From TrEMBL:
Pfam families per the UniProt record, alphabetical: adh_short
Residue ranges crossing the lipid bilayer per the database entry: none
Protein name in the entry: SDR family oxidoreductase
EC number: 1.-.-.-
An annotated Gene Ontology molecular function: oxidoreductase activity
Lineage: Bacteria, Pseudomonadati, Pseudomonadota, Alphaproteobacteria, Hyphomicrobiales
Top EC group: oxidoreductase
Family: Belongs to the short-chain dehydrogenases/reductases (SDR) family.
Gene3D superfamilies assigned to the protein according to its UniProt record, in alphabetical order: NAD(P)-binding Rossmann-like Domain
Alphabetical list of InterPro entries matching this protein: NAD(P)-bd_dom_sf, Sc_DH/Rdtase_CS, SDR_fam
Length: 266
């Protein structure tokens, strides 16, 4: 698709509902043309028609199950070859059904395929394409449990910790290329992910559940402010900066040619 927008085209994965659909709406409002990616072609098409009528932008629908290698490569191909694409919202993913000890290990493999493998492949493809063009933005949707994994299912938390670490490392590598990175770390958010996993968002403490519209608005504000990591619920940015300072303070001591003295044999 040739972009009709001076803002360029945004490719949004997991766009049929929830965070992805809300990103699509807000980006269209900002003037972006769109490529919407998800498994549910009917819902994508309905959303596309709504956004075209509401905002007058061009919207393409790309039906793909990103846990399937052939579908994932189709989306990758679009990212690499469509020079109109200036923004990737790497949002597709699934949540857990419960604790690991009671979960279906095949389902967990699918979670890793979506939350890690697909997210990694699309972000790398976008990074390579955007850096060659000298501009572009990659938004990776992680989770607050990336920094406090003990609160949730281990495979899910681990998958989101990967997204956070990957974004931080990739941002360092892309420094000076004109490509921007952002990891978004939502807390509990009112979306369909809980219903799909067999739970209910209504059963949770509602004082801790954010509306998806508020989440996406905050995430876009963080992007506008140049944040590499955006935690929409975090009141004080200084708290995150303290965590990063403590992490970097470990740097000089995480690799030496001898074990620490405290590990010496008795």
């Amino acid at each position: 698709m040739t972009s009709s927008s001076t803002s360029g085209t945004a490719l949004v994965t997991g766009a049929s509902a929830g965070i992805g659909a809300t990103y699509a709406d807000r980006l269209a409002r900002r003037g972006h043309d769109l490529v919407l990616v998800a498994r549910d072609a009917a819902r994508l098409s309905a959303l596309a028609e709504t956004l075209k009528a509401r905002y007058g932008v061009a919207v393409d629908v790309l039906r793909a199950d990103l846990s399937v290698a052939a579908d994932l490569r189709l989306v990758e191909k679009r990212l690499r070859e469509d020079a109109a694409i200036t923004l990737l919202v790497n949002n597709a993913g699934i949540g857990p059904k419960g604790g690991l000890l009671a979960d279906d290990i095949d389902y967990l493999d699918t979670m890793i395929a979506l939350n890690v493998t697909a997210a990694n492949r699309l972000a790398v493809a976008a990074a390579q394409a955007f850096s060659a063009r000298g501009e572009g933005t990659i938004v990776n949707i992680a989770s607050a449990v990336a920094i406090i994994p003990e609160l949730f299912n281990g495979t899910y938390s681990g998958s989101k910790a990967f997204v956070l670490a990957f974004t931080q490392a990739l941002a360092k590598e892309l420094d000076g290329t004109g490509v921007r990175l952002q990891a978004v770390l939502p807390g509990l958010t009112r979306t369909e992910i809980f219903d799909r996993a067999g739970g209910s968002i209504d059963a949770l403490d509602q004082s801790r559940v954010m509306d998806v519209s508020d989440l996406v608005e905050a995430a876009l504000a963080g992007l506008d402010q140049g944040e590499l990591v955006t935690i929409p619920s975090l009141p004080e940015r200084a708290d995150w900066e303290k965590l990063q300072a403590a992490r970097f303070a470990l740097g000089p001591n995480i690799s030496h040619n001898k074990p620490a003295a405290r590990y010496a044999a008795a």
